[in-house]
Write a structure and sequence with these properties.
By secondary structure, this protein is mainly α. It is 72% helix and 0% strand. It contains five helices and no strands. Helix 2 runs parallel beside helix 4, helix 3 runs antiparallel to helix 4 and helix 4 runs antiparallel to helix 5. The N terminus is likely disordered.
């Protein structure tokens, strides 16, 4: 369904736009909006990297799904999400995101 709604859109062009949006929100102190943009960036990467997007797990990113370029962007976004949670003083969420970053890095 998702594919058909967005047919003809070049998702690869959207990825840096969403990440830059997250960076802009982070810089302005809008941490919740930054998290939303970073998560959207990760979802787009997962979607274009997945062979069956309707079955993928949006909670975790695995290295075998990602090219080196997408892996770096994903790691940046996940680290930035953790930083947002720290700024929001949501330490449990920040730790959980850092744990996810460590899992993905160790694969």
């Amino acid at each position: 369904i998702f594919y058909f709604l967005y047919q003809g859109v070049d998702f690869k062009e959207k990825i840096p736009i969403f990440k830059a949006g997250g960076n802009k929100y982070f810089t302005s102190g809008s941490y919740r909006m930054a998290i939303r943009k970073y998560m959207k960036t990760i979802r787009y990467i997962q979607w274009i990297s997945s062979k069956s997007p309707e079955k993928m797990d949006y909670e975790y990113v695995t290295l075998n799904m990602l090219s080196n370029e997408y892996h770096k962007i994903t790691m940046d976004c996940m680290s930035n999400i953790a930083a947002c949670f720290l700024k929001l003083k949501e330490y449990k969420e920040a730790k959980n995101m850092c744990d996810k970053v460590n899992i993905v890095c160790s694969l």
